[in-house]
Amino acid sequence: MIFLGEFYIRTAHRGTGLGKALMEKVAEQAGIKDRCKGMNWLLRASNDSTWQFYRRFNAIDMTTQHEWRFMRVKGDSDAHSS
Ligand SMILES: CC(C)(COP(=O)(O)OP(=O)(O)OC[C@H]1O[C@@H](n2cnc3c(N)ncnc32)[C@H](O)[C@@H]1OP(=O)(O)O)[C@@H](O)C(=O)NCCC(=O)NCCS
């Protein structure tokens, strides 16, 4: 199982196949076809556009489909962020 920090293609380079190629490469490197149980990452619930992209790769919404919760204990330096 791997956790991605963030999946992001700079605006100027979008729509050229880079996102798809990167997604496939990361999955391949992780061993998604044989030794890796899955890839995980976070997506803001409001980011509907990107959700549509991930659905093309059969990504599952772990919150609505598997009732997972994203948990955090805040450190003092993070007290005011969302
Ligand atoms: C989503 C994102 C990765 C797509 O990258 P991209 O390089 O523009 O995508 P590609 O050019 O590789 O597109 C691949 C395919 O997906 C489709 N696609 C791209 N963005 C899409 C979207 N938002 N919704 C539906 N389909 C999309 C393309 O039309 C293309 O289809 P095709 O294979 O039939 O031609 C990019 O827009 C991005 O970085 N967005 C911000 C992501 C973000 O918010 N990250 C933080 C949370 S993880």
Outline the fold blueprint.
Blueprint: E1 2-3, H1 18-30, E2 39-40, H2 48-55, H3 62-66
The chain binds coenzyme A.
Quick recap:
The chain has 82 residues and is mostly helical.
Protein architecture, described:
This protein is mainly α and 82 residues long. Helices cover 32% and strands 5% of the residues. The chain has 3 helices and 2 strands. The chain has a two-stranded parallel sheet with strand order 1-2. The longest helix has 13 residues, at 18-30. It is globular and about 40 Å long. It starts with a strand and ends in a 16-residue tail after the last helix. The mean pLDDT is 94. Bound molecules: coenzyme A. Coenzyme A binds at residues 6-9, 14-20, 41, 43, 47, 49-50, 52-53, 56. GO terms for molecular function: N-acetyltransferase activity.
Task: Provide key terms for this protein.
globular; two-stranded parallel sheet; mainly alpha; 32% helix; 3 helices; 2 strands; binds coenzyme A; 82 residues; single chain
Identify the overall geometry: globular
Would you tell me the structural class of the helices and strands? mainly alpha
Sheet with most strands: 2 strands, parallel
Number of strands: 2
Strand content: under 5%
Which ions and ligands are bound to the chains? Answer: coenzyme A
Which residues form runs of ≥5 with pLDDT under 50? Answer: none
Helix content: 25-40%
